[in-house]
Structures are given as C-alpha cells and as structure tokens.
Amino acid sequence: MTASVTGGEKTASLESGLMEAYEIRSLYFRYGASRSASRPWVLEDLNCSIQCGEIFTIVGPNGSGKTSLLKLLARIVPVQHGSIMLYGQPLRELQQEDVARSVAYVPQDTQQIFPFTVSETVLMGRFPHRHRARWDFGFGWESQDDRAVAQQAMKTMNVWHLAKRPVTELSGGERQRVIIARALAQNPRVLMLDEPTAFLDLQYQIESCALLCRLKQERGLTIVMVSHDLNLASQYSDRILLLDRGRLVRLGGPQDVIEPEVLEAVYRCRVLVDEHPVSKLPRVTLPGRTTGFGAGNLSH
Amino acid sequence: MTSSVERARASADMLDLPKDPARLPDPVDHGMFEASSLTVSRWMAIIGMLAGCTVFSAVICLQFGAEYIRLNDILRILVGSIGDSVTDAETTATILFHVRVPRIVLGFLAGCSLASVGVALQALLRNPLADPYVLGVSSGAALGVSIAVLFGVGTTILTMSALPLCGFLGGLAALAIVYRMAVSSERLPVHSVLLAGVILNAVFSALIMFITSIMDPNRSFGMMAWLMGSLTAPAYPALIVLAIYVFACFGLLLRHARALNIMTSGDEPARSLGLDTERTKRYTLLLSALLTGAVVSYSGMIGFIGMVIPHAVRLGVGADHRLLMPAAALVGGAFLMVSDTVARTVLSPSELPVGILTALVGGPFFVYLLAWRKDRMS
Q1: What is the pLDDT of residues B81-90, one digit of tens each?
Q2: In B, which residues are within 8 Å of A163 by CB distance?
Q3: Phi, psi of A233, rounded to the nearest 5 degrees
Q4: Chain B residues within an 8 Å CB radius of A128
Q5: What is the pTM for the complete model shown?
Q6: Which of B7, B16, B32 lies closest to A163 in CB terms?
Q7: How many Å apart are CA A163 and CA B324, to the nearest integer?
Q8: Which residues contact B80 (CB under 8 A, 6 or more apart)?
Q9: CB distance A117–B37 less than 8 Å?
Q10: In which element (H, E) is residue B62 found?
C-alpha cells in the first residue's frame, strides 16, 4: 500500500482503491485579500493532490509559502483564487466545523496562558463533534464517547499520566504531545503539522516521527506536514512537495526531490546529498569547513 | 466488567477505531476525568456553594450601615410580625427595603457584570490582565454617560434607559479602538493591549475632566462622586430593569463559555478546532460592552474587580469557562457587595466611594501579577 503511493503516480493510487484527500487546482494566494493587488503572490498557480494515507511533507526556503499552504488546507485562511477539494468537496463551501471533523491542525507552537489541565485541553478536540442539546445552555458537556476518544488519544501520545497537570507547567515536548493528542481527539482523517519537530530535542524528534508513521499505519491517517528539516522529510515522507517563492518546484518521492541540483537552485547554497547508510534514502548534509566551498562561490 | 468491555467495543465501532481486539480502547477511566476535568456534578457543587455564600454575605451586609440592624429584627420584618415599637420598626423597614436592599442588589449586579466581563475579555485577548477598567472600556462608557449628562439626557424617569445606552456606545467604541490597536500583529501581544488601554484611559479621562469642568458646579460634584465609583441605588423599577438586562446579557455571554475555552488556545488553533472565531469575538465584545455600559452608568468606574476576581477564582476552580464565568460572577457580586458595605460603614455617617476601595485592593494585585508574569512569559 505504501509502495503504490510512494511514486506519486495517480494511476497507481487509483488502482489500489485510494482516493485523494486533497485536490488543489490552480491555487493562488496572497495576504491582505483583494484590496492589495500590488502584494506579491504567496502561492502561485499551485496544482497537486494529496493521497489518502500518505505522509506528505512540504519543504522549501523561508517565505516560500509552506505554512500558508498548510493554513489554506486547514481552512484557517480562506481560499481566494483556485480551488481546494477535500475528499471531493470544495473547501470553500464547507463549514469550519465540517472541516474540523476531518482535518486537525497542530500549530508550530501553542501558547496557553490559562491553567487548563491536560485532559481539559485534549477534550477541546471534541469541540467540532459536540452535540447541541437545547437544555444544556450551550455548554456541551463531554459525553462518554468524547472521554473514550480523548483517553485513547492521550494514551497514544503517552500523556495520559499527565492528565491532571496544567498545560502551563509542561515542557515543550510534553506540550507538543498534548496538542497532537488534542488533534487526534478530533478523530480526523487528515493530520496537519507545522514544523512538528522544531522545538524538540533529538530523542523527541525521532519519537514523534516514529509516531507519525504509526498513526499512518494504524489509523490510516493522512499526514501533511511542513518541515525545514530536509533529512526528516526524506526519511519519513512518502512524497515531498518542494516550494520556492510560492511555486511548485518538485513533487515526488524523496529520491525525486532531494537532489543536489534542485536543492542548490532553490536554497542558493551548496549541499551534499548522499545515501543514508541504513534506509538508502537521500541524505542532505552541509558542506564542511574543510571542503573548501561555500555559498560564496556559487554562480546563480 | 464485561459491560465496560462491550461498551469499549461499541464505541470502537462507532468511532471507526481499529477493531483488532488487542487494540480495543481501554474502558474509560472516569475517575481520572473527574479528577482532571470539569463535570456536571462538580459544576453544581461549586456553583451551589458559591450561591449559598453569596446569599449569606448579602444577609450579613444587610445588617451593617449607618445604623446596625440585628438579624433578628431583619427576620421579624421579613416575616411581617412587627416588633414592640411600631414607629421604630417602620423606620427600620424603610431603611432596609429602600436603602440597603436596592444597594446590595445593585452591588451584586455590578460586581457580577464586571467580573464576567473580565473573564470574557481575558479569554478573548488571551491576557490575564485584561479588565474593563484597565482596557479603558469603563472610561469609554463613562465618557458616553458624561456626554449624555452634559447635554441633559438623563435624570428623568422617561429616559431611564438612555444613560446605559450611552454607556454602551462609549464602551463599545473603546473596545473597538483597543482591539484595533492591539490586533495589529496577529498574535495580540499582552503588553500592547495593556498599552492601548492605558492610552485610551488617559485620553478618555482627560475628556471626562473637561466635561466635568465646564459643567455647572452643583452637577459636577455629583459627577465626581459617580466617577470615583459609588453605588447609588435607583428606584425599584429601574433596578428590576437593570437586573433583567444584566442577567440576559450574562446568560448570552455564558452560552459562549465553551467557545471561550477554545479561543484561549489562539485564533488559528481555535479555527482549526471548528470554531467560528470572528463570530465569537463579535458576540463577546458586544456583550461585554453592553454589560460594562449599563454598570458604569449606574455605579461609575469601579476598577480591578474584572481582573482580580477572575484571577483568584481561576486559581480555585480551574480554567474551564463554563464554571469560571458563573463562579467569578457570583464571587464578584459578593465581593462588591461586601466592599460597598465596608465603604459605607468605615467612615460612617459619611461614605467612601467604593471605587477607591477596590482600586486600593486591586492596584497592588495588578502590579504583583505584572511582575510575576514578566518572569514567566514574554
């Protein structure tokens, strides 16, 4: 199943009965709505699709539109030009709640200043699934099922033992896991993460990547993430989308995208790409000081 | 035991979780959830207890004033069996029903509104220092009311509702300005909101001072007393209208309690959790302005209740707004009731404006919070 998706060929995925989670057609986006026609496009003429059950990583230099794309997909910012289809339905026509029932978004860094406990925070993930009873004054008390799902999510993310602690007292890594647990409590089909490993130490980076793979396998989750870490993208993604200044540069498996010429053109610096000794996937390293070349003597 | 396993399996079916028996979700550990999140029973217990305390303190407050009335006499008057000396009992009854009860009710309503507005603004701006007074909403409302008074809208019965309306418009304008000033960068930095409030407060105070200074001296004295925050109870009809108004607004605000929970996690995360954040913001700001406007038009600028009370109550009952909002309203109401009783008793027979008392308590608390936050946040 994984193999058929990895190549990114549409035909292969259709044959294996997979449908597209997202279909993006000639998407244009800029901040500041229609009034500011002078502003540059953040995303320009983007066409691609995201398959069900794949790990799809968006990479690119700073300001290439990665996070904007993620926010568009999660409907946090509205679609302006072009279209995004979520499971065959135009995103523009869906309600925020409908989207939240199938798409969960984990921001890069969540600041919570009020002392909500971990279990209260995770139960917030049940918000889009709340029942509207007339008598409960809009309070939407959490049901047994809400608790079941939240408990499952907390156990999956290994934060169940923290349930009573206020989120304000947790370490960065713990808080990140709580937020992912909240996202899982939404019972989504697509999980989006903005730089999931940015604030994590090596151990947690590996742990959370292993976890993403596990979620993909066990729950069939589609995972869309933005990352600056090309190695991480290469090792764990089924497909990688490389953006530069809002345009699609490459889309495909790690071997197709992580190529020295492509990266040098996009990032405007020298990189070394070799083969990872274990996974045989491409590995990116910076040229060391002794190799004698740097960004300076590159002619672009 | 079997039933819980069956239930787990049933919920696994419904929720589309893996059906592999080894991966069945564990039965829900309700004990853990009861200890770590809000439940209906805890809500009932805490709100019941606080309501009881509020009634108790109201009864205590009834006894104090320029003249001490014993609980016995109060009860006797309430039951209707008048005591030994008829004239004496009549005076006591008059004091009780026409001076103290309206004043206590007004104190409760004002405290309720300020505390619940504080809770809402804190959640909305993600800032534990937000408060209608600090943010300039109160002074906006006060400016609205003073303009109305200057142009002679006001004291008559017919225009009973005009002053709260002016207060509302002033408060709304202030909120809109603070919000616009503070929202410039998407993340609503804590200190820029406070700064916006401080600036607005300064400008509005200057305008209010200007209005007071051009007023005729007889009226400007009353105006000053009102501005310092003093509870001057209106007659019963107006009081009842105010009570209905406050409870209606409070009820509508409370309906957004769960949405406010979601709002505290930030604008974009809240949207990704399925909340219509713009709608929530609009409603909450509107209701906050409505409540503040009404309260300010009756009781002037009573500061810091909207900040101190939510903060203290949050330490006790947790952060969930479904409990925090009504609990803070009850505690705020009781607190203002008691403060007002103290304010009118300590210097008796003359009265201290209650706003002075709350500012004396709240100001240092604000400084403490600001200092404490500096090393935790930013």
Answers
A1: 555 555 677 7
A2: 32-33, 35-36
A3: -60, -45
A4: 273-274
A5: 0.85
A6: B32
A7: 20
A8: none
A9: yes
A10: helix B40-63
